[in-house]
TrEMBL record:
The active site is at D105, E170. Signal peptide: none annotated. It comes from Punica granatum. Its cofactor is Zn(2+). The lineage of its organism: Eukaryota, Viridiplantae, Streptophyta, Embryophyta, Tracheophyta. It is found in: Cytoplasm. InterPro entries: Aminoacylase-1_M20A (IPR052083), ArgE/DapE_CS (IPR001261), Bact_exopeptidase_dim_dom (IPR036264), N-acyl_aa_amidohydrolase (IPR010159), Peptidase_M20 (IPR002933), Peptidase_M20_dimer (IPR011650). Its EC number is 3.5.1.14. This is N-acyl-aliphatic-L-amino acid amidohydrolase. Keywords: Cytoplasm, Hydrolase, Metal-binding, Zinc. It holds the Pfam family Peptidase_M20. GO terms for biological process: amino acid metabolic process.
Length: 449
């Protein structure tokens, strides 16, 4: 590092050091580079699917927990896939606890497309840390731990119990981690009142909170029709039947996309439909038989349904317009995630006064000199859905402002100053949430949410 940029770095850190010292004089003594190096250590564990290194991950997290004297429990709902539950007990265990949730696995990389090794956690001269998982979402898991360290050093004592949970398999659906955890007796006993899970980076100065997510419906439509000579024009062939549907689906897709393009709706607020495959034709040794109209054809679509949509209306549309029996068509879902929670309500976390956690979050972020943008619907699926399904409030929040959205992309990075700032923000949230005692509202809001 050249002397000039060193000065720049010191300058950028100055506000942080002042804020940290507001928490405690002891903490101001901690060198931010040590905090960053613990993050790098976590990033260097290769947890890419399909073979995340769970043993190193577990060892690392448990060592962090022990350095903070947190209670730790490792649960394997499925052998070899650890869910790690850390607990900072509150002084009033009868109040619902708060859960800070992250996943340890990351998506695979195309090594050759990276400027720095994806599991090297290279810190460049500008302060950017390059690694798979730097945004999605090892940053958040480690910030949860560092925020607890910050609060412990300041002498803070939580009234509510604070759980920090790490799960193994969000990137492949969360079925062996979050889904099983949410259904477990262990989770019921944790008596969780609110969940914080992942969000997305924000290219501007506002953090992006997420209060819902779209549900994936993976649809396959099939057409059958009279087979015949490739030279003959006749009605009711399988492909003609299928193409009528594809045209209808494309018109629907365009109408939804137009709402986004016109700025009337955000990406997470419309139903997206994208074709995933087309399957038809009669194979021959050289490709396909060219003078034959096949008797079967099918197409697959990835549909994402916002919690605000009426699932019955969409399903009727599919049955009547996209795969009508009158055109000899059938359909099936490869996946059809529910849009409603167990109480039959849309899977949305309230962002008004009916949900005290929302207001407390706004307050906590403000206190840490951060700004929250308008709440959004997450465009893809996260593990939050398993908790929202139970009717629990869950907020998606990854504090990364002024950061390009690089999750699942090559050269994923996070600036160390944004990372450090995020620790303060989580410190403020944990402090605010863990001190909140108006429990009578918890119960009633929980039923409503
Ligand atoms: C995890 O990484 C360590 C090196 O840090 C290695 O010894 C071990 O074999 C790895 N385990 C798996 C399952 O890849
Ligand atoms: C549906 O299939 C039947 C039996 O193969 C056929 O007679 C009829 O013409 C088909 N109708 C359409 C609309 O494809």
């Amino acid at each position: 590092m050249v002397p000039g940029s060193f000065l720049g770095a010191v300058h950028r850190l100055a506000p942080l050091l002042i804020l940290l010292s507001a928490f405690s004089p002891a903490l101001a003594a901690e060198d931010p580079s040590l905090i960053v190096s613990r993050f790098q250590e976590y990033l260097r564990i290769n947890t890419a699917q399909p073979n995340p290194n769970y043993s190193d991950t577990k060892e690392f997290i448990l060592a962090q927990a022990s350095s903070l004297s947190l209670e730790a429990q490792t649960v394997e709902f499925v052998a070899g896939k650890p869910v790690i539950i850390l607990k900072w007990p509150g002084t009033n265990p009868s109040l619902p606890s708060i859960m800070f949730y992250s996943h340890t696995d990351v998506v695979p990389v195309e090594q050759s497309k990276w400027a720095h090794p994806p599991f090297g956690a290279h810190l460049d001269g500008d302060g950017r840390i390059f690694a798979r998982g730097s945004q999605d979402m090892k940053c958040v898991g480690m910030q949860h731990i560092e925020a607890v360290r910050l609060l412990k050093q300041s002498g803070f004592e939580p009234v509510r119990s604070v759980y920090i949970v790490f799960s193994p398999d969000e990137e492949i659906g969360g079925h062996d981690g979050a889904e099983k955890l949410a259904e477990s007796e262990i989770f019921r006993k944790m008596n969780v009142g609110v969940v914080l899970d992942e969000g997305l980076a924000s290219p501007n100065e506002d953090y992006r909170p997420f209060y819902g997510e779209r549900s994936p419906w993976w649809l396959v439509i099939k057409a059958i029709g009279a087979p015949g000579h490739g030279a003959k024009l006749y009605d009711n062939t399988a492909l003609e039947n299928l193409f009528k549907s594809i045209e209808t689906i494309r018109r629907f897709r365009a109408s939804q996309f137009d709402l986004v393009k016109a700025g009337l709706k955000a990406e997470g607020e419309v139903t997206s439909v994208n074709m995933a495959f087309l399957k038809a034709g009669t194979p021959s040794p050289t490709g396909f038989v060219m003078n034959l109209q096949p008797s079967e054809a099918e197409a697959g679509f990835d549909i994402r349904v916002p919690p605000t949509a009426d699932p019955e209306v969409l399903e009727r549309r599919i049955a009547e317009e996209w795969a009508p029996i009158s055109r000899n068509m059938t359909y099936e879902f490869k996946q059809k995630a529910t849009v409603h929670n167990k109480n039959g309500k849309p899977m949305l976390t309230a962002t008004d006064s009916s949900n005290p956690w929302w207001g407390l979050m706004e307050e906590a972020v403000r206190k840490a000199n951060g700004k929250l943008g308008k709440p959004e619907i997450f465009p893809a699926a996260t593990d939050s859905r398993y908790f929202r399904l139970l009717g629990l409030p869950a907020i998606g929040f990854s504090p990364m402002a002024n950061t390009p959205i690089l999750l699942h992309d090559h050269n994923e990075f996070l600036h160390k100053d944004e990372y450090l700032k995020g620790i303060e923000v989580f410190g403020s949230i944990i402090k605010t949430y863990a001190s909140y005692v108006e429990d009578s509202r918890d119960r009633s809001s929980r039923d409503e949410l």
